[in-house]
Every structure is written in structure tokens, then in C-alpha cells.
Design a protein that fits this description.
The relative contact order is 0.15. A hairpin with a 5-residue loop joins β15 and β16. It contains 12 helices and 19 strands. The protein binds adenosine-5'-diphosphate and magnesium ion (MG).
């Protein structure tokens, strides 16, 4: 554990690039002292496709966070989307001499033996995450050091990334004048920032819903036990709307954020929009119909996650106790409710917790990975730092006016008048929307 240090997370996503600067105080409490978010450039589905543009955007994100914190950033922990990663769980064994207690070098030997699996030379190991230990058949041991036994076993979850995309990421970060202190799987970072203390004892599925990809991490008693990546994200929902409504992507994005819902039942039933297509014709569409365009894609994402977990771990409702949604696309109205339908599990939206400082800025699901990278940097063991749950940790300040969406709650009501709506980028003129229901009451 590092003390009184600055740790910086750099979340390079498809939609945005976020820098989060954390300061670790004595005792391990974490204050967020800087944040900088810019539109992502040069990235597609978690991969660098244009080195120069990505480098430039990284630089801007870092500079923004530096200005807020007054700190000069030199090195960063960087997120990696799961589509470049391959994960395996490998078993390691170490024999212990009779009448000797287990020491750290025995633990290291067991882990090393688990690591000694043939890996594709095109892969670079990102994480070696020991799960629980088994001593002479006794399972569920978190730390075997000091125990007696003759046989120490461990399951190690190994996550390796494809060398090419990792090299490209490293190159951009270095070109931006920074040292890469480490890589961390995107969904692992999101989980570290959002898992509650009680969930440390359960199996939970963290679903990070970004623009180009949806990253999945399964945590078993606080350890990353499985990960996957679905190559579909919020951008695909936007693209569906753009194609069907025949409007540009930016307008489709605005319509989705302001009026969209993942479940038509939760759409504003009194709302009708007037859409002006790219060719100039106009047509009316209700929010209900809008959501009927959105639902299949969102459903497809959750269906693919379900299939993936069913095939690798078993029926999701049997292996897991809950689902945490993070990432910007988790903000779409009705998303937790749809997820609950698909997974048949309790679902909540995860926001970074257990930190101090600029909590009002980073307490949104889209910042989970950025904050999680800082927490990963503290321990570098892939577990939530113990201090995050400590008694003297600052309570996170709730995001202003943003209700914590819990699937078991009643659906979030649609804003009843435009003045109460969350400030969102104004749709451009071509949209020509008319909100009949709202204005009837309002004018
Ligand atoms: N309020 C919102 N409602 C619906 N979707 C949203 C909202 N805010 C962001 N999104 C979606 O979240 C996605 C971006 O996710 P995010 O986690 O912020 O970035 P990244 O793609 O870089 O991981 C986009 O597809 C965007 O449409
Ligand atoms: Mg992301």
C-alpha cells in the first residue's frame, strides 16, 4: 500500500477519455483531486485506430485534470477493453515441508506454478489474480501465510491482452508524455469502484456499458473470477435510431438520451416527437415507439451476456446474487429494469463509492472505470483496497438530482415539465421536435 501518493487513472474509452487523479492519504483513504474528460478520438471499440488523434485527446484529458488538481501527471494506470483480453483460470500447487508453516515464498511458488501455462506468444499478461487458497483440502482461505499443511493449492485468474492493441495504447500514452504504470481490465476497474462491502462476500456480475463495447466482469467474493466483452454498446442503439428515423447520429444520440427508454412501458406515455429526417420530410413518433426501437438492441446485449455466463459458469441466476451496471449507457431510462428481467437477479446502477474529494463530479456510472483505475493502482492486486470500506473513509456525496436507479425501485418518473429536465445538450434544429404533452401543461 502506497501512502501520501498521487495515483492517476486514464480510462481510454470509445466515447470519452477520462483522467482521474487520486491522492492516497495516510491510512489509505482516497481523495479524488482532479478529473478531466474529453471526447474520445482515434478509438474504435476499445482499440486505437488513429495514434495521433488518440494521443492528442489523451493529452487534453490529462491537461484538464492537471489544471483542476494543480498536480503534474507523470504516470498513469490505463484501462483495457475486454475485447483484447483472454482470460483463463489456472491451478497451482506448492508442496510444504513437514512441520513448517507456510511462508510468502510458498504462496509465490504456488502462484508461479499456476502461471506456468503455455500462452499464445501474441499475448501479454495483464493480471495474475490469485483466488482463494486451499491448504490440505481446506478451501476458502484468503491468506495461508502462517498456516500449517503439506499441500498448498491456488486458483489463479490470468488475464492476458493481445500484444498489438496494448502496444498501440502504450504508444499513445507515451507520446502524450506519460509513463504507463500498469494496465487494468476495464470491467475490473469498474467493479473495484462500485462493489459494496456486502457484495465482497457474494458473486456479482459487473456490466460496464460503454459506447462501442459492453465489458463484463464476474467477481466471486471480491476476486475477479471471469471476464468477457460484448462488442455492442450504446453507440449501436444510437445507430439503430439514426437508421430507422433517418436522422444524423448526433441527433439520434440526443433523442436517445432525452426521451429514450430501454423498456417501452417506462417511456413517457404522453410524449410525441416530431422528427425532421435528413431528407427534410417530417414525421411524428411517440416516446413509446422510440423505445420499441431501442429495446431489441439493449435486450440483445443482456442476452449475449447471459449466454456467455451460462456457457462458462452456469445459469446466471444460480451462480450470481446480483448485477451492477456501470458505464454511460447504464443511464438510459429503464436499463436496470430490463436487465432485471433478463437476468432474473437484483440489478443496481453502480456509482464510484468509498472515496472523498470531488465525489460530486465522479459519482456517476460513467466514471466507475476511471476511479477504479486509481483504486487498482493503490493495491495492484485486483481487489478493492481495504481502506475503501474503512470507518474513517469520507462518505461519497450523492450526484446532484441524479436518483440512484435500483431495479427494485419504481421506474424513474419522466420529467413533468421541461424546466425540471436534466440539462442536456440541446438537439440541433433539424430535429424539429415538439413535445405536445409537456407544453400543454406548461404554457
Ligand atoms: N444519459 C444517458 N442516457 C443514455 N445513454 C447515455 C447517457 N449518457 C451516456 N450514454 C451512452 O453511454 C455511452 C458511452 O459510455 P461511456 O461509459 O460514457 O463511454 P465509453 O464508450 O468511452 O466507455 C454512449 O453510447 C452514450 O450514448
Ligand atoms: Mg468506458
Amino acid at each position: 500500500m502506497k501512502d501520501n501518493t498521487i495515483i492517476v487513472g486514464l480510462d481510454i474509452g470509445t466515447t470519452k477519455i477520462t483522467t482521474v487523479i487520486g491522492e492516497v492519504a495516510e491510512g489509505g483513504t482516497v481523495d479524488i483531486i482532479g478529473e478531466g474528460t474529453v471526447h474520445s478520438e482515434g478509438m474504435k471499440r476499445g482499440s486505437v485506430v488513429n495514434l495521433e488523434r488518440a494521443t492528442q485527446a489523451i493529452r487534453q484529458s490529462i491537461q484538464t485534470a492537471e489544471r483542476v488538481s494543480g498536480v503534474k501527471v507523470e504516470s498513469v494506470f490505463v484501462s483495457v477493453a475486454g475485447n483484447h483480453a483472454k482470460a483463463i483460470t489456472s491451478h497451482g500447487l506448492a508442496a510444504i515441508r513437514r512441520n513448517q508453516e507456510i511462508v510468502q515464498s510458498d504462496v509465490n511458488r504456488a502462484i508461479e506454478n499456476a502461471r506456468a501455462v503455455p500462452l499464445d506468444p501474441n499475448l501479454e499478461i495483464i493480471h495474475t489474480l490469485p483466488q482463494e487458497y486451499v491448504v490440505d483440502g481446506q478451501e476458502g482461505i484468503k491468506n495461508p501465510v502462517g498456516m500449517h499443511g503439506v499441500r498448498l493449492e491456488v486458483d489463479v485468474h490470468i488475464v492476458a491482452g493481445t500484444a498489438g492493441p496494448l502496444l498501440n495504447l502504450r504508444r499513445c500514452v507515451q507520446e502524450a508524455g506519460l509513463h504507463v504504470e500498469g494496465f487494468a481490465l476495464h470491467a475490473l476497474a469498474s467493479g473495484l469502484a462500485t462493489l459494496e462491502a456486502a457484495e465482497q462476500g457474494q458473486t456479482v456480475v459487473v456490466v460496464d456499458m460503454g459506447g462501442g463495447t459492453t465489458d463484463v466482469a464476474v467477481f466471486k467474493r471480491g476476486n475477479l473470477a471471469h471476464s468477457a466483452c460484448i462488442p455492442i454498446g450504446g453507440e449501436h442503439v444510437t445507430a439503430d435510431l439514426a437508421q430507422i428515423l433517418k436522422i444524423p447520429m448526433e441527433e439520434a444520440e440526443n433523442v436517445k438520451r432525452r426521451y429514450g427508454a430501454a423498456l417501452p412501458e417506462l417511456a413517457d406515455q404522453d410524449l410525441t416527437l416530431e422528427i425532421t429526417t435528413s431528407s427534410g420530410s417530417t414525421h411524428a413518433i411517440t416516446a413509446f415507439e422510440l423505445s420499441r426501437i431501442i429495446k431489441p438492441r439493449m435486450s440483445e446485449i443482456f442476452g449475449m451476456i447471459r449466454d456467455e455466463i451460462d456457457q462458462t459458469l452456469g445459469p446466471v441466476e444460480l451462480v450470481a446474487q446480483g448485477v451492477i451496471l456501470t458505464g454511460g449507457a447504464a443511464l438510459l431510462r429503464g436499463t436496470p429494469e430490463l436487465a432485471r428481467d433478463r437476468f432474473r437477479l437484483p440489478v443496481r446502477v453502480g456509482r464510484p463509492r468509498g472515496i472523498g474529494g470531488l465525489t460530486d463530479i465522479v459519482a456517476a456510472p460513467g466514471f466507475a472505470a476511471g476511479v477504479g483505475l486509481v483504486l487498482y493502482g493503490i493495491g495492484e492486486d485486483g481487489r478493492v483496497p481495504a481502506s475503501v470500506y474503512g470507518p474513517d473513509v469520507h462518505e461519497p456525496v450523492a450526484a446532484p438530482a441524479a436518483p440512484v436507479a435500483v431495479a427494485t425501485d419504481l421506474p424513474a418518473p419522466a420529467p413533468s415539465a421541461p424546466v425540471t429536465a436534466k440539462p442536456e445538450p440541446k438537439p440541433s434544429q433539424g430535429l424539429g421536435e415538439r413535445i405536445r404533452g409537456w407544453f400543454k401543461d406548461w404554457m
